[in-house]
Design brief:
With 183 residues, the protein is an all-alpha fold. 69% of the residues lie in helices and 2% in strands. The chain has helices spanning 11-28, 44-55, 57-72, 85-89, 93-110, 118-144, 148-157, 160-180, and strands spanning 31-32, 41-42.
Length: 183
């Protein structure tokens, strides 16, 4: 019987996963608390979209899962240096758990290099943002017992203009990097 050795990730992919996990941790700490919602404004959407469009689906999902596992294990990686299972189970948890799925969608839509354009990247990031908002807002509404309208207002309404700017910047930056660096 022979054992077949297979690598799950190349060295380059492993480095990218580490870099983009660290970027997510750093960007989660860039917060602007809103008095009207338990969910602060962060740079996580930028980090998520940028990472997924540069790395591709497999590495992007992995970096997001590592980010979540670090936080659940008690490392203060979530916004406001939060950590633990209570952070994921609380009102902000839906946004956190949506990140791997959003990364998968963005990564799958942008990993083909031959037809990659700014618009394609932007649309893929908008699709990822819809996933983040849908899961995050539903979770927020359920955890706080909010009506659908109030959950949408508190979970997405205040954030959409800034998130649109973030995905625009992330799309531009990722396209420029992918043009210049073989990732």
């Amino acid at each position: 019987m022979s054992l077949i050795k297979t690598k799950l990730f190349t060295t380059k992919e492993t480095v990218l996963i580490g870099i983009f996990t660290a970027l997510m941790v750093i960007m989660a700490q860039v917060t602007i608390p809103l008095g009207i919602s338990p969910v602060p404004i962060t740079m996580q959407v930028f980090a998520l979209c940028f990472a997924a469009s540069v790395q591709g689906a497999k590495c992007a999902v992995t970096s997001q899962l590592i980010y979540i596992m670090l936080g659940i294990a008690g490392v203060p990686v979530f916004s406001g240096f939060g950590s633990g299972l209570s952070a994921v189970a609380g009102p902000k948890g839906g946004y956190i758990v949506s990140f791997p799925l959003a990364a998968l969608v963005i990564g799958l839509l942008t990993q083909r290099k031959e037809k990659l354009s700014f618009v394609r990247i932007l649309v893929s990031m908008a699709a990822g943002l819809v996933i983040v908002y849908a899961i995050g807002t539903a979770w927020l509404g359920f955890s706080l017992g909010l009506s659908f309208e109030k959950a949408v207002l508190l979970g997405a309404g205040w954030y959409l203009p800034l998130d649109a700017i973030k995905i625009f910047a992330a799309a531009y930056l990722s396209l420029q990097i992918r043009k210049r660096v073989n990732i």
